[in-house]
Amino acid sequence: MDKKKPTYKQALTELESIVAKIENENPDVDELTGLVNRAVELVKYCKSKLKKTEEQLNKSLEELE
Amino acid sequence: MNTITLSELNGIILECLDRNLNPSYWVIAEISELRVNQKGHCYLELIEKQDDEVLAKSRATIWSYAYRNLSLWFEAATGQPLQTGMKILANVTVGFHQVYGLSLNIRDIDASFTIGERARKRLEIMKKLEEEGVAGMNKEIPLPLVPQNIAVISAPTAAGYQDFTDQLDKNIHNYDFRVRLFPALMQGKEAESSIVNALHAIFKSQEHFDIVVMIRGGGASADLDCFDSYRVASHVAQFPIPVITGIGHERDETLVDWVANTRLKTPTAAAEFLISGLKQFEDSLDENLEEINGMASEIISGELMNIDNYSRDLKHLATRLISETGGEFHLLKSRLGHVSKNRVNQMITRTIHAGKLLQKIVQGRLVLEHETFRRIGENLKLMDKSAILKRGFTITRKNGKLIRDPASTEPGEEIQTEFYKGTMKSIVKK
User: Fold this and answer.
1) By the 8 A CB rule, do B270 and B264 touch?
2) Nearest Cβ partner of B282 from A9, A16, A47?
3) Does the model's pTM come out above 0.95?
């Protein structure tokens, strides 16, 4: 399975599991850093998939003109 | 034979009808044909069917002045124009024309019958779909988490479609929707097949789409028959991807609305629905991230506080320990001092005693030994001396002291000489 490109569902599930982990497992500061970084990575990835790229935006703006 | 002409016969028939018929009748019939000529007169064929068998058939007319009003009013009431296939309750007069034969003239139509009829048919199909077990299938499919890839069934020229795509294109959140149109006729006789074909096309590439949207702009002539068709409803119900409708009518639900996963009122509402779907997902991302950050901050500041507390406690403890230990130490020291001094003294005393005792013992022994050695020595000396004296030597002494050097004497001093056999006193002459 391509871990680099999760589906939206996989990403959200992983994100929620990170929340649960931090809440229930009391990770130490090192582990915490890793988890937070992964969470940010997941959110950034999803958002970039959700939204139009700069490129597309510019194209639409051009079309308006 | 009593012969009459045809026109005479028709006259008799006409008279008979006039005499025996009511002025008008409310008749239930199905429209099997309908056309309107340029003058505005409406010519219909009415039939009665049982299953597929035609039990009765008759021509009918609606004169233009009546048709104008009736058709408008009927469409307003039912949402559809008078059309073939429709079952109506009409108020008719029976007309017999000498040349054209029997014909009915429609003066009024009870729209509520048609509505009821329509509703009845719809209910019938609903039951059928339920019995087949398919009615709830599309509803059971969970809506996609992110409805981003959209298959649209609509007429490309329809205003509804334009509005829909515009809205998705220009959404304020800048979401990237990927929309593909599967064009279809959304009204008229061909609509049913057209829509089903579109569904088939989408089915063939279903893995590319998250959701199907069926939209149509509203409009004065809202011909919704295709959406009440068993065929269309059945296909939508069993479709493997969630289907949402935005067919743009305020009236009661059509069958397609009923079996679709989600019903929206208009294409605009459908677009809004999709956008809010993505927004909801984005929000849940943000919420989770916020929670993570919040908890992480708490943990870290908690750790920092702990560290502070620890170091403070440690300082206190250390200070206390030092002062306590210091005090204890002093105590210990003095205690130790006392204790050790005593012990040491004790030990010293004991050691001294032991030493003295030992000394005594040794001395005692030594004394004993000394005596013995002395005696042995003396004996030895004696023995030696005897041997020497016996040979004729003498031992000279001055004042008891042995002298070996004549220079150690002065003339006139007394010396003693020891012989083997005794001693002799002499005076030194030089």
Assistant:
1) yes
2) A47
3) no
